[in-house]
Write a structure and sequence with these properties.
This protein is of the alpha/beta class and about 240 residues long. Helices cover about 40% and strands about 15% of the residues. Strand 1 (about 70-75), helix 5 and strand 2 form a beta-alpha-beta unit.
């Protein structure tokens, strides 16, 4: 199943295509700003603004962090939130993704934004994270669990790699009460790689694996409005 997911996201010429698009847009590849990349690396619901609001849930400031603070971006894609998190807190962040082409592009874009001393990337599965126990102070998980059938395994791995008292920041698409999903959707072109679940079930899974729910916010209405605006603009 992981090979199907990897194939869905991988693109053989991803980094080259990104380079070409940035050059066409008049960007200087040797000195990119994060805002230059937001149209391609902040495409999750709510974009960078939603990520920053999510980061606030950590209730910490960069000044309060100890030098060895380390965050994990689980399912990092091309590294947009990894870089944003690194810049926001001025600490080290490691991004992990199943798709090797995402890791290649993430590494390139991080070099272009001069954040390579803080943000780094590894290919791997969130169901078998390539890290020791008690490694991270926080785990970020954005729009990933809809591709994961065994969410309990993911929760177990997050708990394992977190330091005692560490937090998971979830920003996920959950199953609602509407009609069955019409494929394709951004995360799946076939039902064999789409595993939407309700928030009640997801929260229960995380509670069963050692987590408590510190805060919860339903962003459905804002997400719908955002995607309707995006679709309207894309048709012009």
């Amino acid at each position: 199943m992981e090979s199907e997911i990897k194939n869905h996201y991988n693109s053989d010429h991803l980094t080259q295509n990104i380079k070409a698009a940035l050059i066409k847009a008049g960007k200087d590849l040797s000195n990119l700003e994060l805002k230059d990349l937001s149209p391609i690396d902040q495409i999750h619901t709510g974009g960078a603004r939603s990520s920053i609001e999510l980061f606030k849930k950590l209730n910490i400031s960069s000044d309060a962090l100890v030098p060895d603070t380390l965050f994990l971006d689980a399912g990092c894609g091309i590294g947009g939130s990894t870089r944003l998190l690194a810049r926001q807190f001025k600490c080290r962040v490691i991004g992990v993704d199943l798709a090797d082409k995402f890791i290649e592009a993430a590494t390139f874009l991080t070099q272009c934004t001069h954040l390579e001393t803080l943000a780094s990337f590894q290919q791997g599965s969130i169901l078998e994270l390539p890290f020791e126990n008690n490694t991270f102070d926080a785990v970020l998980c954005q729009h990933i669990l809809m591709n994961i059938e065994d969410k309990a395994a993911a929760a177990k791995e997050f708990f394992r790699v977190l330091k005692p008292g560490g937090k998971v920041l979830l920003h996920e698409i959950a199953k609602g009460e509407n009609d069955p999903l019409l494929l394709p959707v951004p995360w799946a072109d076939k039902s064999s790689i789409s595993f939407l679940e309700s928030w009640d079930i997801m929260s229960h899974i995380f509670k069963e694996h050692g987590f408590g729910i510190e805060s919860f916010s339903d962003q459905t209405s804002g997400a719908i409005a955002g995607w309707e605006k995006f679709n309207a603009l894309s048709k012009k």
